[in-house]
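Thread title: Can someone regenerate the structure for this chain?

I was given the following input by a collaborator and told the matching structure tokens would be attached. They weren't. Posting the sequence so someone can regenerate them.
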Amino acid sequence: MARTVDPQPIAPAAPEEFGLVQVWWGTGKGKTTAALGMGMRAAGHGYRVHVLQFMKAGTGTVEDTRGEYNAIAALPGMSYENAGHYGWHGMLDGSDDEAHQARAEAALARARDLLEASTRADLTEPLALDGPPEDGLHMLVLDEVLYAANRGLIAEEEVQGLVDGKPADLELVLTGGHERPEYATDVADLVTNVDKEVHPMEAGQGARKGTEF
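Best answer:
Regenerated them for you:
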């Protein structure tokens, strides 16, 4: 018989075994979804989580306020920011490629700052759930960073530099890209290829509210 476990209050806590590098890439849907779900799980244990999106700032067919933004805002210990440029790089949607690159480079600088701030923090101790990400993080999700590198918006070596510069106790999650990111998989502890078999968009289905945004 199915059972429901009573929820416990979310209180600040520190993870005992964080510190790995994760890579989520592939042609299939679900890379960002998986990372967000894992971030939600970590936040549910009282760990401090931040999501920094390098792309996906919005398009004419996707609402600016996505479901995950509302959910993150309601969840203690989890925060996000989107540094992407409106539109999608290389999709002939009228967006400027140089602006995409400038936004991606700004996200890269922001990621460096967050890693440096977490290096100064004691990640073996609980962090304030409502504190700014500059006070330290237990998990940092760099969403679409691999896509930005694969498209040449940022250098692959810069992504490697983020891995090299992360504090030992911070869980670093890198997502994005349809091409295998050898520059990241070579240094990752977990690599997941989210492979596509069938996708409804190939049959003309657009992004759906509640599943894609």
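DSSP finds six helices and six strands in the chain.
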